[in-house]
Write a structure and sequence with these properties.
Layout (H helix, E strand, L loop, with lengths): L7 H20 L24 H96 L7 H17 L10 H18 L3 H20 L14 E11 L3 E4 L8 E5 L4 E8 L2 E6 L4 E5 L3 E3 L1
Antiparallel strand pairs: 1-4, 1-7, 2-3, 4-5, 5-6
């Protein structure tokens, strides 16, 4: 059997096998580094899907938080506006109170001025009456002169007038305090002189002297005795002459010039009074029975 030469294909295959064997042997030689392979990365773990109910609850909670925050901001603005309004009202209230105080003080001042003007008019009226009495006295002086010519005045009228004046004088009593009153001292002297003129049958002179004495006695009745003078209060202004007054209605007479004082006594409409002094809108008066007190000027008028 004849030998055939191997083909090229067979030779190539043999060479490849030999090369593979050589490569395997080379990997087993000492000192050679084994071929390393890079491990493949592990696959990423899949995230679980969120719960829809939790998402809805979170959104609702966020909306409520934003709403609460907005309401809080609105409340803060309202509170700030309230504070501004309160401060403005407080300022207006203070201004109103100051205005009311000024008006009250002005009204009080006007009332006192009106009261003083009214009391001054009453005082002037009393002065006019006093001057009128003096004029009457001057006329009586003329009558006295005529009495020297043996006027035809009746004896009974002179006796009656003299007795009336003496009775009024005795009614004042013999209080030692009154003995210091110059008018009463002069009245007593006139009465004595009148009695002497009566004995002389000078009846015109008796009428003149007794009229003068009665005027002085009347003034003494209106004044408090010197030993019973009342202490003056601060701001009290005495009248130049006692004022003949009368009550314009039922009212209270108090122990001092003001409604905060106790009531001393009560007077009825038409009660005769005598004004001695005043303070503000109050008048110090004396009743005919000797009681003293203060009364509002609107409750008295000219007698």
């Amino acid at each position: 059997m004849s030998r055939t030469r191997p083909s090229t294909r067979h030779r190539t295959l043999a060479l490849a096998v030999a090369a593979g064997l050589l490569s395997g042997c080379a990997g087993l030689l000492p000192g050679s580094a084994p071929e390393t392979t890079t491990p493949a990365p592990a696959p990423a773990r899949a995230q679980p899907a969120p719960d829809p109910q939790v998402v809805v609850a979170q959104r609702k909670l966020e909306q409520e938080r934003q709403q609460v925050q907005a309401e809080r901001q609105q409340l803060d603005r309202a509170r700030a506006q309230y504070d501004r309004d309160r401060q403005q009202l407080e300022s207006q209230r203070q201004k109103l109170e100051e205005s009311l105080k000024k008006q009250a003080a002005l009204q009080q001042e006007l009332e006192e001025k009106l009261a003083r003007q009214r009391l001054v008019l009453l005082e002037r009226d009393a002065q006019i009456k006093t001057l009128t009495q003096k004029l009457d006295a001057a006329i009586l002086e003329v009558v006295r002169t005529m009495a020297k010519l043996r006027s035809l005045e009746s004896r009974a009228e002179a006796a009656s007038t003299l007795a009336e004046a003496e009775t009024a004088f005795k009614a004042l009593g013999r209080d030692p305090a009154r003995e210091k009153d110059a008018d009463l001292v002069q009245a007593e002297q006139l009465l004595k002189l009148g009695a002497e003129e009566y004995r002389k049958e000078n009846y015109g002179g008796v009428l003149y002297l007794t009229s003068q004495a009665k005027t002085l006695i009347k003034g003494g009745q209106a004044r408090a005795p010197a030993g019973q003078s009342l202490p003056r209060v601060e701001g009290e202004v005495p009248f130049s002459v006692p004022l003949p007054l009368r009550a314009l209605g039922k009212g209270n007479v108090r122990e001092g010039p003001g409604t905060n004082f106790r009531v001393a006594f009560v007077i009825e409409d038409g009660t005769p009074l005598t004004g001695q002094s005043y303070k503000g809108t109050w008048v110090r008066v004396r009743s005919d029975d000797g009681r003293w007190g203060w009364i509002a000027h609107t409750l008295v008028g000219e007698r």
